[in-house]
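[retry 2/3] Rhodopsin domain-containing protein: previous attempt timed out, resubmitting with same input.
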Amino acid sequence: MGTPVNLTKGDLDLAASITINLGFLARNFYDTRTIDVISAFAGFYNDTPNATDPEILAFSGARPQDLSLLLQVLGERDMLRDSIFWLDAIRQYLPYTPGTGHLLVPVFAVFTVVTTIVLALRLWSRQTIAGGIRGYDWIMVFGYFMTLVYSASALYHAVNINISSQFWGYSWNEIARQQMFYIVLDILYPIAALIIKSSLLLFYYSLFSGRYLRLSVWATFGFTLATTMTIILYSIFKCHPVAYWSEWYTSECDSHQKIPYLVTGSFMILSDVIIWVLPLPMVLKLQLYRREKIAAIFTFSLGIFACIASIFRLQAVHKYFFTSAGTGKTPIINTWTIVELNLAIICASAPALRALCIRHAPKLLSYGSNGTDSSSNSSNNSNNNSGNGSMNERNRKNTKSVHGRVIVHHDQIRPSDLASLRSGISRTGSGWSDFEKSVHYSSTSRIGSPV
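[retry 2/3] Rhodopsin domain-containing protein: success.
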C-alpha cells in the first residue's frame, strides 16, 4: 500500500478499526497505546516475515481462538501483516487531538456550586416559611446526590480516561474502561432524571385537589418510569455479554444503537414538557392580580430551560454517539447531560426561592412587607393623599379590602398561621373569599396556592 498524506474519512475509520482489533488481540500489550502496538507488530513482522501462528501467539499473548477469529474476518493471512505495515507507515499522518473533557470541567464546577446553593436555600425556605421540609424535598435532595454521582463519574471519565479524541491514542485497558463508563453513565442519567421528576410530580400531587389533575400526575409518572426502565434495560442488554469489551470478537451488539437512544431521549423531552406544563392550568385559575399571576406563571415555566438543555443533549447524542473518522466526543454529550440535570433541580426550586424573596427581600419582587404588591401600595397611598388629604369611609373600606387580599404562596403559610389569618380577615369580606378560592386547604396537607 502507498503512504497517503491526506487521509480520507474512510482511511481514518479503517485505522481506528485496525488499532482496536489488534489492541484487543495483543494481551501482552494491554497497557500500551494501540498505535504503538501496531509499530511493535510491524517490527515483529520485519524480523519474522513468515511468522507462524505459535510465534504470533507467543509475541502478542493472544488467545488461539482470538487469532483464529481475526484471521477469519480478514479473509487472508497476509492481510493482517499488510494492514499492520500500512497503518505503521501512515501513523505520522494520523491526527492526534486532546480529548474534549476540558469542556466539562468548568460546567461541572459552576453548576455544582450554583445547584448546591439553590438547594440549600430551598430547604431553608421550606423549613422557615413552609413549616417544614416535605417528602418531595428529600426526594429532590436524593436527585441532587444522584446528579453529583453522574457528574463526578463523567468528570473522572473526561479527565482521566478521555485523554485523546482518537482510539489509536489509547491502550486497550483504557478503551475497555471507556466502554464500562459508557454503560454506567447511560444508567445513571435516567435514574437521576427520574428522581428529580418524581419530586416535582409529588409536589404537584400535594397541590392538586382535582381528580383529573391527580390522575394526570400518576399518568405522567407512569410514562416517565416506563421510559426510564426502557433506557436502563437497553443500556445493560444492548450487547451480549454485557461486558462486551472482554470478548471483543465474539460479542454481539445491536447495530442500530443510536435509534433507541434518540427515541427514548425524545420521550424524556416529552415527559419534561408535560411536567412543566401540568401546573399552569391551576395557576391560571388563581384569583390574583395580573402582575402576580404573570410572576407565578413565570416561576412555574422556568422548567422550559431544562427542556431546552434536553434538546441540546439529544442533538449531541445524534451527532457524537458514534465514532466518526476515528474520533469520539462523548464528553460533549455528558456536558449537556450535566446542564440538563442541574437546571431541572434549579428550576424545580424556583417556587421556594420566590417565597424566600417575598419573606426576606420583598423589594426584589416589588412586594411590600405584608406581601402585597408595592406598586398597589404606592397607588393607594397616592389616592389616599390626594384632594384635601383625608379619605371618606368608602375609600377606607376599599383600601382595607385591597390590603386584606394578601398574596398567598404555598411556602409562606404554616398551619399555625390560620388562626391569625381568620382573626385578621373577615369571612364576609372579599379578602377571605379570594383567599379561599386561591388556596387548596386541608388540615393535614400544605396550605396556600402554588404562586
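[retry 2/3] Rhodopsin domain-containing protein: The CA atoms of residues 439 and 448 lie 5 Å apart.
[retry 2/3] clearing retry counter.
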